[in-house]
Amino acid sequence: MSSSLPRDLPGRTLRITQLEGMYLSDTVDSPLPFKLDSEAPRFFLKIGAAIIEPNGAEITFTRSDLWEMRQHIKSGATIGTESVGRNLILKVYTALIEIANEEGASEIDHLVSFLEKEGDDVGE
């Protein structure tokens, strides 16, 4: 996974279906090899919970998780007849907008600051 926003920021619990979990597992990147004490194993274990349960699972994602997912989800992705990409992007944006509305401008300011820092890192 790429560098992320601070992990102590609020998140949301989303209902992730088994097929959505499989899609996320196949789509979201992680640095290989990743350290066992990094955030990547924790994120993928969350996704795994939805995969092993036939009816999916309620999973709490941090704000950073949500942004990471948003970066990788393709809205047109389908598995069988399930529009996993569309379903996931709607869930992720709903959660991110709820967080932003609760925090007002501070969320936007923090995101702009984060993106500016990321841009500086890319230019180095």
Written overview of the protein:
By secondary structure, the protein is mostly helical. The protein has one domain (12-123). The chain is built from 5 helices and 2 strands; from the N terminus they run βααβααα. The chain has helices at 18-27, 39-52, 63-72, 84-103, 105-123, and strands at 12-16, 57-61. A two-stranded antiparallel sheet has the order 1-2.
Key structural traits:
mainly alpha, two-stranded antiparallel ribbon, 5 helices, 59% helix
Work out the count of structural domains.
1
- Please tell me what the overall shape is: globular
Class by SSE composition: mainly alpha
In whole angstroms, how far apart are the ends?
A: 19 Å
Oligomer: single chain
**What is the H/E string?**
EHHEHHH
User: Measured on Cα atoms, how large is the radius of gyration?
Assistant: 15 Å
Counting DSSP H or I runs of 4 or more residues, the number of helices is 5
Q: Please list the strands of the largest sheet in the order they lie side by side.
A: 1-2
- Could you tell me the mean pLDDT? 80
Helix content: 55-70%
Task: Itemize the secondary structure elements and their pairings.
Layout: E1 12-16, H1 18-27, H2 39-52, E2 57-61, H3 63-72, H4 84-103, H5 105-123
Antiparallel strand pairs: 1-2
Helix pairs in contact: 1-2, 3-4, 4-5
Outline:
The protein is mostly helical and 124 residues long. Helix content is 59%, strand content 8%. The chain has helices spanning 18-27, 39-52, 63-72, 84-103, 105-123; strands at residues 12-16, 57-61.
